[in-house]
Design goal:
With 298 residues, this protein is α+β, with helices and mostly antiparallel strands. The chain has a single domain, classed as Sandwich (Jelly Rolls). It has 11 helices and 9 strands.
């Protein structure tokens, strides 16, 4: 798979009717080709992350150190700590009996918007998937001292497609506090995104150790799992899943995020939640863009 070089321009994602398309036939190759150019990132932004894209294709992951300032990460950590106060412990061994998972993060706080829309991360998602994207999930994960390591797994196992296959999702796992071997840095198994094995093969397992404010992006087909926290402090992470826009999202944003909250979001965040039309037809409301529902307070 090579980087998308055929796209030379970006059409604004404004959900207005596309001029020049034949309204009576949205299935033509011309119509769909024009729609496929509606990216959030520019060709220049995707070219700027070419080294990370190449590493992801070969190894399954890449790290962006210090993607946000450490001070900003501490502000976000404070917000996640606040949300943790009303969050129960994990529901089983996989979720973690000493782990708190804050689901539906984008409905509960606006401090994460800049991470969700981070230009390098969005460029990596669109460049790696070579497709239009949407949010599948935004999840805060706090691993407390004494939590054992999570079972290795793939984030895309719920898609019933044969392996190996083109990538379906890209995960962006943000270190909100320092990720170290002691605090439970996530385990990753490089190159397993290229295999069809149902279990991770014996071999190299790496720890995604990185300072607060960094992010590791990886193919959802790569085996990974949270590490054991053997320290005295909680490890706070934030995982954001970006998927191809035509797939079912893991979180149902249309029901879980109230419309009044969606209206407060930046327009591009609204679109990433699913308030736009993919490839002429997917996601319409009464045959029109769902953005009209927000604009008219319906």
């Amino acid at each position: 798979m090579t980087a998308p070089t055929h796209r030379t321009s970006v059409v604004p994602l404004d959900d207005k009717p596309i001029q020049g398309l034949k309204a009576d036939n949205p299935f033509t190759k011309q119509s769909q080709a024009e729609q496929a150019d509606r990216f959030f990132s520019t060709a220049e932004e995707r070219a700027a992350v070419a080294p990370q894209l190449q590493q992801m294709r070969e190894e399954g992951y890449a790290v962006l150190p210090h993607a946000i300032p450490a001070g900003r990460a501490e502000e976000i950590a404070g917000e996640i700590r606040r949300l943790n106060e009303d969050t129960p412990w994990g529901r089983g061994a996989f979720d973690g009996y000493k782990t708190r998972r804050v689901f539906n993060m984008l409905a509960k706080t606006r401090v994460l918007d800049e991470l969700a829309l981070h230009p390098q991360v969005v460029a990596l998602a669109e460049g790696y998937l070579e497709d239009q994207i949407q949010f599948s999930q935004a999840l805060g994960i706090t691993i407390y001292p004494g939590q054992e390591a999570q079972a290795l797994h793939r984030d895309d196992d719920y898609f019933p497609l044969p392996r190996p296959r083109p990538p379906m999702i890209m995960n962006a796992l943000w270190a909100i506090t320092d990720f170290t071997a002691e605090t439970g840095a996530t385990h990753i198994v490089p190159r397993t995104h290229l295999t069809a094995d149902a279990e991770p093969p014996p071999g190299e397992v790496l720890r995604a150790e990185m300072p607060a404010g960094s992010v590791v992006v990886y193919d959802g087909a790569m085996f990974h799992g949270g590490g054991a926290n053997q320290s005295t402090a909680p490890r706070i992470g934030l995982t954001m899943l970006y998927s191809r826009a035509w797939l079912r999202q893991q979180e149902n944003h249309y029901l879980s995020v109230p419309r009044d909250v969606v209206r407060e979001m930046p327009r591009r965040l609204q679109q990433l939640l699913g308030y736009w039309v993919y490839n002429n037809l997917l996601g319409v409301v009464e045959g029109r863009s769902p953005m009209r529902v927000l604009e008219h307070n319906a």
